[in-house]
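TICKET #2291
ISSUE: user wants both folds in one file
ATTACHMENT 1:
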Amino acid sequence: MRHLNLPSLLLAAFLGSTSHVSAQQAPGQSGTGTGRPSDGQPARPGLLQRSVTQEPGRSPASGNPPPTLSPGADAPQSPVSTPASQPQPATPQAAPPPAAPVRPTTNQQTPPTQLPPAATREAAPRQLPPAIPPAQPGTAAPVPPEMAECTADSSRGSLEACGKVIQTRRVPRDVLVMAHVNRAQARVSQNDVDGALADLGEAIRLDPRNAAAMTVRARIYAQRNDVDRALADLASAIGFDTTATAALRERAAIHQRRGRIEEALSDLDEAITRDPLDGAARLLRAQIRVQRNNLDGALRDLDEVIRLDRDNLVAYAERADIHIARGDRARAVLDVTEAIRLAPRNAQLIALRGQLNRELGRNDQANADLDAAITASPNDAALRLTRARASWQRGNAAQAVTDLDVVLRGNANNAEALRLRGLAQARLNNADRAIADLTQAIGRNQRDAEVYVARGEAYQRRNQRQNAIADFQAALQVDASNQRAREGLRRLGINN
């Protein structure tokens, strides 16, 4: 978020990730986006600097079984579709990662729009959302046995099974449409976007009013920045299905990215009017309201999203962001703690809570969080450097050196790490090591009096009198009031 002005503890760790937050479904909605960061993966820029995916071994955040279209579900209907006992076309969702096998449910909708990280949403293009659960045919329709694997969560197996269903063509039309849509999703997970578009085009040819396939195709077009085609598909989908909300969410996301905020809010308002339990629409509306500095409205939306789905990490993160913007660190800690509940081994979430606890004066909790974060991600240079600073301030030079060794193994030219390790080595009376690090630090900054003094003291321990005098005098040229430099010169018999 643009309002945060926290230290740069987490910036580098999160910006390297390319995946994005997926919005959450409210109970009763379809979709597999979890809004959780995978353990050990970075969170997002800004507050959590999130890169959020489902944690291994966890069910979708909504807590509901993954959905499928079944007879009587609120799926887009074609005037030439088969009777209600026949299966309906696949619900659109985004591409990878592959979804788990699905179970029949009712009142289905397409999954939530993929949301960009809050801190980068003004600039970053929206990414494809996570994969939708494959559509499954109704039990009343005669379907080939391969259709079971076509709806499975293995993208490679799904590709082969769906291909067999499509090749036979001795299936009801709606089953064939589902096979094309499911194969399209599997192809996107394999980075075969052209193949996915071909499948979706065939699904729409077979069922020209299939709003689900149009919405999925629109997402791919939007990902390719083919906005005109994406908007055309979404307009058709919205016209064909006046009850589902996924196409409205997708169009709102495109409007947001293009800076058409009023149009985005209009689509989201309509989506929420159609389905007040659409947590994904509320979440995106909350993010847009934050952009407009309508924090009260954003909080209302986020409170409702969390009421609908207690496992929605994205909503907790957005709400914590707002609390930080308002200076309410205590409430922010509560929301970040909920995020950690959903991703207990995510180092950046734990480190962020430690940062907030430190700002609240809870130093013991802050130190414990920082230790836990490094245990979860032992090679994270940013976290190691942060703990080294804290250890130095507490007088624990040995711990500082241990952490700085890790930092410098990853980047031997890190100026701050060289300076701080040199100072710590000097405090530990490791004169030769201190001189080596401090000399490199001085090469990068000749205006640091403390470094000159520390190297001068190290030279003095090594009985290198002239070098020590030169460093103490250099320190006084930078800072004429430096008492340690004056004392060093007096010890060497120099009056200054």
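ATTACHMENT 2:
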Amino acid sequence: MDLKIAIAANEEYHATDGTSSTEIATFLEDRLKWYEIYKLGTRAKDPPTAAMRLGTFVHLMCELGGPEHVSATVPENLEIPSEKELLQLREGFNVVEPTPTECPAELVGMFRDDGTINRSKKVYQTWKKAREAEAGEKAKTLRIWTKGEWFATTRGAAFANTHHGKWLFKHGEANPLIPIWERLKENSEAEAWLLVDPEYREKELRWGDPTIGKCRCKIDVIDNDQDFPCFVDWKYDARDRAA
């Protein structure tokens, strides 16, 4: 299974009906909040935190077999711009028409006496065609990848397509998934769970409860060891390790 399929499967699971562990945790934490979210639908669920994002990628890493399948470091010759820079780049694709007070002398002929643009004039049509071509070329050589919030020049377009959906890190930035993976591999039992056949990973269970109704859960790993069979649930804690 690749990253795209794994993400789609996870999103599909969370979109289906059924009482989940998250709903139960919300009920135990704050019953009014639970009622407003899950019964009335008048309150949105809390947005994912940084810890939740990390936990999601830890699960994907364990499912797919290593940090290289879910993360990547942006090469040094590519950049990750700020939100302001991204906004400026997006605005750069728009063709802004000139004004009578701010235009070259050769464009004055496109304006009427009242200062409005006469778009039927050849001088205007020639100018607009040139600007649209210029914007089009810029769009080809500067690609915005909104999900990753970074841009790549044509040199990096292949990199962007190859690593779409992955957690991207700046050049020189530490990837927290790598030490977690290394610690997991150091533990013989955890390493064995990482090597379990894909058929026994990320298994969905659904059942009906006479009190709660539809229920669902997703088991990270099913260990069918004859002496000690168990369900494995990957968890991440604040000390940068998986348990």
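RESOLUTION: both attachments delivered.
EXTRA DETAIL ON ATTACHMENT 2: The beta strands are 71-73, 142-145, 150-153, 167-169, 201-209, 213-223, 230-232, 236-237, 241-242.
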